[in-house]
Amino acid sequence: MASRFDEDLETGMRELGRAAREAQRLLATAPRAAKDAALRRAAAELRTRRHHILAVNGADLAEAEARGLGKAMLDRLMLDEKRVEAIARGLEEIAELPDPVGTELARWTRPNGLDIARVRVPLGVIGIIYESRPNVTADAGGLCLKAGNAAILRSGSESFRSSRAILSCLHAGLEAAGLPTAAIQAVPTTDRAAVGHLLRMSEFVDVIVPRGGKSLIERVYAESRIPVLAHLEGNCHTYLHESADLEMAVAVTLNAKLRRTGICGATETLLCDRAAAARLLPPVLDALILRGCEIRGCPETCALEPRAVPASEQDWYTEYLDAILAVKVVGGLEEAIAHIERYGSHHTDAIVAEDRAAAETFLARVDSAIVMHNASTQFADGGEFGMGAEIGIATGRLHARGPVGVEQLTTFKYVVRGTGQCRPG
Fold it and tell me: What are the pLDDT tens digits along the chain (425 aa)?
């Protein structure tokens, strides 16, 4: 198939789109039992084929290292037994979720007797463009299937082999459940021009979901003729309020920054109240530095921690995706909120505080998709929210915000039932 795509890329992409549209019409009314059976069989296939998946992932990793990909990208790309098992469990968790399709959101009767219901329906065909993470193949395919959508997946070239191996497990699940394999398709070429064709296929594709770096998102916004549900960068903050418990401040900050530095929910900037900086920052920063984290600090931070290097203005804007943390001392709650508003990406921001009133003010006024109190920003994840998995964290306001799971991959329609009513002239 790849060779045919290389010969006539536009025709090949349109064939993908046409097949996806036909499959989605069947999937839109498929019974829950069939969709759940497909997900569970795919999970079983992932476990059965795990050695093959790890082998091809090793080939992807070797090629990525040779190309000079950074540590964050390599971490996102890497699979091991534990991660493959997590992917399989994620599909099973999606199967356990209620089927959103057909759910009645509201119902009322008008004085003229018309019965009106607002009912969940699939979005349609979703094009998903992503980099590095092969697990997105299963997460995106599984979520779209559960919500009655067809998916056209375009993985990054660095994860091409891994993603194809995972896709074969999804196809095995669809076949076993009697559902069309065209419900989840992947673009079978690494040619970057395929993305441009996908972004113009408005007759076949209803929504585009980009998940990747800033350059990818900018390209999608510039070229797409299709509505975009964007996953933007995660310049996340943890703010240590003057009332923060020291032990909690150390534990939460370490986890938020270093559990996995290459994920979008990793904290990139630490803010600390001046009134508690001498109490909180030295032990927090010492714990970070001992674990290999570079500190880029404001002048007050550098005075408290000589191993810190001076931060530039650009550091406050930067999503490092690495063991680097920007640290700034602020005058209080108002300054912390203002800093997050100016420099943040409206992804995930957290406050560590014993003062409940201060925490509630932070939660109410910080305009991010996810706001947290006394918890690590690395909980910014659909699976951790009980949503089974996610396609990404949407940072805009339309159509969804925060983790994009099954419900967020639906829209609604109005179903009106009458008894012969005619509107008076």
Answer: 455 666 799 999 999 999 999 999 999 999 999 999 999 999 999 999 999 999 999 999 999 999 998 887 898 899 999 999 999 999 999 999 999 999 999 999 999 999 999 999 999 999 999 988 899 999 999 999 999 999 999 998 999 999 999 999 999 999 999 999 999 999 999 999 999 999 999 999 999 999 877 788 889 999 999 999 877 789 999 999 999 999 999 999 999 999 999 889 999 999 999 999 999 999 999 999 999 999 999 999 999 999 999 999 999 999 999 999 999 999 999 999 999 999 999 999 999 999 999 999 999 999 999 999 999 999 999 889 988 778 888 888 888 889 999 999 999 999 999 999 999 98
Residue ranges in 177-273 assigned as alpha helix (H) = 193-200, 214-223, 246-258
**Dist. CA 395–CA 368, nearest whole Å:** 7
Measure the CA angle with vertex 286, ends 281 and 287; round to 5°. Answer: 105
Q: Is 20 in contact with 162 (CB distance < 8 Å)?
A: no
The answer on 123 and 76 residing in a single domain is yes
The structure's pTM equals: 0.87
Q: What is the CB neighbour count within 10 angstroms for residue 169?
A: 26
Number of domains in the chain: 2
Give yes or no: residues 64 and 198 share one domain: yes
Residues 224 and 243 both lie in one domain: no
Question: CA 142, CA 148: separation in Å to the nearest integer?
Answer: 10
Full strand arrangement of the beta sheet holding 115-122: 104-109, 115-122, 410-417
Task: Collapse the DSSP code of 151 into the 3-class scheme (helix H, G, I; strand E, B; otherwise coil) and give the result.
Answer: strand
40: which 2 tokens? Answer: 């569970």
Q: Does residue 76 lie in a domain region? A: yes
Q: Of 128, 96, 109, give the one whose Cα is nearest residue 16.
A: 128
Alpha-helical (H) ranges within 78-153 are 81-96, 135-146
CATH number of 333's domain: 3.40.309.10
- Its domain, for residue 159, covers 2-232+396-416
Q: Are 150 and 183 in contact (CB under 8 A)?
A: yes
141 and 290 co-located in one domain = no
366 & 408 share domain: no
